[in-house]
């Protein structure tokens, strides 16, 4: 059971990180998703400071410990599964800036789509 906790938590963690990076683009189609994306992106920014531990990291470490496995690397989920695996460790800051750019581009797209929708409503209400 503990292994299942850790593995499910790992999958949820991958989904959450993917949502942090790309969830703003989902809001282009489903505008209400911008609000949870803002919360997730804010949490991601807090995580970059290293001041608080992610509850998903804590849960995965708990499951790993109780399953008799070693915990995640000191840097947590990203240092264990992503950095040095998906991209070389020396590019960590480049990857962070690319993710930040993707988030900002997605938010700009949401704002533009919202503005166009507002204009469309004002044109139909005056017609």
TrEMBL record:
<dbReference type="Pfam" id="PF10861">
    <property type="entry name" value="DUF2784"/>
</dbReference>
<keyword id="KW-0812">Transmembrane</keyword>
<feature type="transmembrane region" description="Helical">
    <location>
        <begin position="33"/>
        <end position="52"/>
    </location>
</feature>
<protein>
    <recommendedName>
        <fullName>DUF2784 domain-containing protein</fullName>
    </recommendedName>
</protein>
<dbReference type="InterPro" id="IPR021218">
    <property type="entry name" value="DUF2784"/>
</dbReference>
<keyword id="KW-1133">Transmembrane helix</keyword>
<feature type="transmembrane region" description="Helical">
    <location>
        <begin position="6"/>
        <end position="26"/>
    </location>
</feature>
<feature type="transmembrane region" description="Helical">
    <location>
        <begin position="91"/>
        <end position="112"/>
    </location>
</feature>
<keyword id="KW-0472">Membrane</keyword>
């Amino acid at each position: 059971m503990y292994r299942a906790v850790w593995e499910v938590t790992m999958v949820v963690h991958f989904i959450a990180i993917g949502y942090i990076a790309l969830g703003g683009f989902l809001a282009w189609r489903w505008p209400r998703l911008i609000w949870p994306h803002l919360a997730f992106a804010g949490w991601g920014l807090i995580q970059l400071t290293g001041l608080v531990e992610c509850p998903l990291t804590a849960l995965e470490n708990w499951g790993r410990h109780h399953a008799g496995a070693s915990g995640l690397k000191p840097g947590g989920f990203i240092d264990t599964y992503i950095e040095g695996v998906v991209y070389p460790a020396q590019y960590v800051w480049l990857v962070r800036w690319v993710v930040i750019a993707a988030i900002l581009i997605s938010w700009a797209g949401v704002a533009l789509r919202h503005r166009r929708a507002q204009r469309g409503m004002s044109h139909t209400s005056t017609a």
